[in-house]
Amino acid sequence: MLVLALPPGGVPVASEVARALHAPLDVLIAGEISTPIRPETPIGAIVADDPPLYDRRSLAMMHLSEDRLGDVVVHRRNELHRLEYLYRGRRPPPSAGGRTVVLVDDGLTTGLTATAALRFLRRHGPARLVLAVPVGAARTVTAMRPECDDLVCLEQPPGLHVAGEWYEDFGQVPDLQITKTLHAFHVTA
């Protein structure tokens, strides 16, 4: 078994899941894509060097095409590579092949990042793929079920738009806290 967190917010949640399951913990670096015009609105997501996953409806509503987002994607991908090196150093990512992989995030609103991450992991041949989140928008949770073998979502409050609405403290998780958390776990590839 392997627990993978979607940083930054998924790391504190995933550390508790990994502890409870006595499983190794690592991160899967994924990120939202937004536009400079509306940085608060995700329109896509990327993982590693995979092609971006876009919300086609959002692109159409904003009169955008994938071609016009090339610079945004390059910038975001460079940032994700920087974070991966910061969190993992030269250590290779653990293998998902043949293992039960539990992907953990702090919540599901649009589901874009989680979908991109699950599709990335599925191509690496896990025996079982589980998505675990403490809170999620009911519509998104329902839409995500086909992307994984199991989905665990503890709360689905009506009208959830931002996962942070559900937390008493939803402050930014500092990079130093993430690296310390990861070093506390012995990751086996």
From TrEMBL:
Keyword flag Ribosomal protein: no
Molecular function in Gene Ontology: glycosyltransferase activity
InterPro entries cross-referenced by the UniProt entry: PRTase-like, PRTase_dom
All residue ranges annotated as the Phosphoribosyltransferase domain in the record: 3-157
Signal peptide: none
Keyword line: Glycosyltransferase, Transferase
The protein's name in its UniProt record: Phosphoribosyltransferase
